[in-house]
Amino acid sequence: MAAMTGVRPLVLVLLDGWGVRTEREGNALATARTRIYDRLAAASPQSLLRASGEAVGLPSGKPGYAQAGYAALGAGRPIEPPAARITPAFQHDGSADIAAHPVLRDLISRVRPLGGAVHLIGTMTPSGISGHQRYLAVLAALLSHEGVKVWVHAVMDGQDTRAQSGIEHLSEFLDDIAGAENAELGSVMGRSFGFDDLSDPAAIAAAWRALANAEAPYTEYPTAYLDQCYRKGVNDDRIPPSIASSYRGIRQDDAILLVNLQADQAHGLLGALIDPAATGLAAKAPSLSGVYSLVRLASPLGAEVEPLFEAMSFKGSLAETIAQAGLSQLTLTETAAEASLWNFARGGAKALFPGETVLVTDTPPLAQAEKKPELASAAITEELLAALKKGEHDVITANFSNAAILGRTGNIRATVEAIEAIDKCLGKIAAQVDKRGGTLVLCGMYGKAEMMLDPETGGAWRGTTTSDAPLIIIGGPKGLELQDGTLADVAPTLLHLLGQSAPREMTGRSLIATSVPDRISA
Q: Which of 265, 283, 398, 408 sits most deeply, having the most CB atoms within 10 A of its CB?
């Protein structure tokens, strides 16, 4: 790549859930009035990015999602998700059997002499995104065989799976653990009760009462309970907590094992179980034998919970490369998407790089999201505009998660409103970047809002998609042309604009056509 004199400032706007799909039915992005976005796209070089499957380190045909997309963008190469490292340990092929894992052996050695139970908490899903029911089944059978009492707390999915498919997954799981004498299903609840980032305090309190104190409606037949909820129009992720009649709560000397695949999961629920008072609950936690997670959790719980496997990490990230070039950078996001930029895109770096600033705005709870679909976009935009006026940063990255968050609710109307709110923000941002002679880059991260109806059932589709994502460069050098590529090519492209070489770790390529002049002027 030829050296260039880079543009300043470079503003990168990341659009979660912003996929490209020609069909209009169930397409919130096509339905929304996005006059600013459409005008910018029509007048600027653009290309399509593959944002799913092998392009982002996932199996072929697998839909993209935040962790995979942000890791590929930040690393400049596809990064295998935690499931790729963890699943072999659950295959019982003798190569990396989970039964011999030293942390799991430590858990057993702590709990068994005291007569405590192990509470497995995880999503009852085959998706492999938030978790996998196979992990729960293997761990339940293994611990039962070791003579440890096991309570499984099934967190229903309904977002990365069809909205009311959990009854099939739970039935399969119960069949899988039928021979485990010491393992029982302790509770069932939807992931909106403390497992997702936007879980509100009331939902977390309800989940805590069910797990900690066994204060929830009883059910003898969990699949029948799910069916009753479905008949009332309640989807898997909103299933109210219900417990088995034999369940008695979390007691002294018990242990908790969160069966997670992402570092930002279940912080609300797990935090309440570890320290109820800190989350506003008038109670004291029992003295536990230990608290564990399958994958290391992000801060602040990462320091309190012992992991079986480390979270995703890599060197040579875009943020690290920008810092090594002596450039200053500002990242703006909200709490619901903080992990995307902090853990995934930065390779799990635990400290800020030189010249790096990160500002995080609070996201409204899920219960308020549909009433306030703009989320924190206005606050993020105001911070971005203020930073542009100060002129202290070479690179500014802003993350708008509205389309993805509202898209996962299944509410098309609210998702359309969220997209239109972003469009207004883009107008303000584009005007200020142009005024300062900078370059604005719009980058979709993975598909979601462009497909909100299930093509098979006609009902709401709340999962992510395999759609391509857009890349648009506004205010770049004259004659700039873009080639199609993948999310892994975005970092080399941005570095090309900045006049910097990509580090050797990045296998992605710049999508800027070679015909562009070697010199980019601000």
A: 265
